[in-house]
Amino acid sequence: MAASNDRKRRLKIVPAVAKRGEIVTVKTLAEHEMESGVRHDPDSDVIYPRFIINQLICRYNGRLVFTSDWFSGVSANPYLAFKLRAEESGTIEIEWVDDDNQSTTKSAEITVTDDDLVGEEDEVGTTG
After folding, report:
1. Which of 8, 38, 56, 61 makes an SS bond possible with 31, Cβ 3.0 to 4.6 Å?
2. Could you report how far apart the first and last alpha carbons of the chain are, in Å?
3. Judging by beta carbons within 10 Å of its beta carbon (0-12, 13-18, 19+), is residue 82 exposed, middle or buried?
């Protein structure tokens, strides 16, 4: 069974607007059964063939910044979060590759600013 491009993939960057040099969190979720290849049908004794996502690749403006190799112990619908440093505005793309070497992708935009006020709350009305 090949992974089709209609499988749900989610990608979120927190925060989506960051200061240059700020650490952001990249959150990913892939809806996938992650069949381990050791489960069998109790009636027919047929072992279900292994079919997992075996690699996750992250690119930031086309540059490889993170990879993760997955194995049969990863649960169904795998979630992964990791951190990276926001250096420039652009696209963060996640690619999931399965056992059939089929891949699906999801991308999100990040805005990076030099403004020191990004993410800071106004302190109007406070007294010292």
Report:
1. 8
2. 65
3. middle
